[in-house]
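Whether sequence alone determines local backbone shape is best considered at the level of individual chains. In the encoding step, the backbone of a single protein was reduced to a row of integers, each denoting a local shape. For completeness, the protein is quoted in full, as a sequence line and a line of structure tokens.
***
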Amino acid sequence: SESATEQRVREIPVEAKRGVIYDRNGRELAVSVSSESVYAIPAEIRNVEETAAKLAAILALDTDQLEQKLRRRQAFAWIKRKVDSETALAVKKLNLPGIGLTQEGRRYYPHDNLAAHVLGFTGIDSQGLDGVELTFDDYLKGRPGSIVIEYDARGREIPYATHRFIPPEEGHSIYLTIDIVIQQIVERELERTLKETQAKAVTIVALNPQTGEILALANKPDYNPNNFIDYSPKLWRNIAVSNAYEPGSTFKIITAAAAMAEGIVRLEDRFFDPGAFEVQGRHIHCWRHGGHGSQSFVEVVQNSCNVGFVNIGLRLGRDGFYDYLDKFGFGRPTGIDLPGEAKGIVIKHDQVKPINIATMAMGQSIAVTPIQLVSAVAAVANDGVLYRPQIVREIRDKNGRILREFQPDVINHVLSPKTAHQLKGVLEKVVEKGTGRNAFIEGFRVAGKTGTA
């Protein structure tokens, strides 16, 4: 019975339309457009050599290989998927027995390179291969359908026979937390910075500290997901979540937060920097030749003084320092819904020596990902509440009904609001009159920390 069915029934797959990816305000970032795919039903082909020769010429395929494919004993075979409209028309005009066309969806990214590392890309079967396309593939891909047609012994379609159309189910749509306008500004600035600094790579992550929502995330150099295969796989890598690096002086925010929270240091405490400090026989130098001399804790942060931070780190000690590394989420993934997230590199607690604490206090001997650092600093901005960084706001079906909504996800309360408020004041001084003066904007309160590693 099965054998008889196989001989007379042909099942032609019908691909489901993939869901749309929107920005937070409903602007399209990834859509599916219709394209034609060429297929063969070998049992119906009358002249294999002639069919292979004619098709190979139009589809730019190897004639011999195509001929072999058409001679195989199989009910159905793809010849070429997702061809352009001119090619599809040329195949249709040939009107070759056993050769047909079916509609499939092809992924199209209307803004080309914009948000490439967030969106990712899809394969020939419209399956997600990277970015949000991969992590939310189960929601986006839908369910394929098919056309079932019955043929007679001579390969002619039998009218009124078991013709069945099993409709495909359209994929769901994803609304990101990304704001396309902020994303465009970020990418423009990255292009400029890449040219001016001749850096190997540059990254910006813009995150709302009150919710953990990512408003923009971009790396340069990047790629165009419409033709990702033309780019080196190295450029597909989302370095904002996949690369760990020594944060350098930007990490002093975490050291300062831990010291202030534990009451080990007060704003008016004074430190003396002679230019170098010895720990376990190693001299740690301040970036300023001759040191900063006598300064308050606020000035230590303002001047990004290495010697001051080494002292603070040693006062905290191994247990105190590691307690806050853990609270702020270092050494483990943030849980962002993007593939390939690294956890960073933190020396094991039981292997740490005083020299390691001294260097970690100023952002060396530890590796963090950009997304980890952004999340940790956002917790300071958000009165000590650490959120999981989020890239998706909601998932909707084709009728616009919300299937899943992503609420802000609190990971930890790392600082008291009072400590966070004090630290913000200190970091404001860094921008006002310290190493971060380039970030000063008249009429705005800007807090931050520079790093040169």
Summary: The two ends are 72 Å apart (CA to CA). The chain has a mean pLDDT of 93.
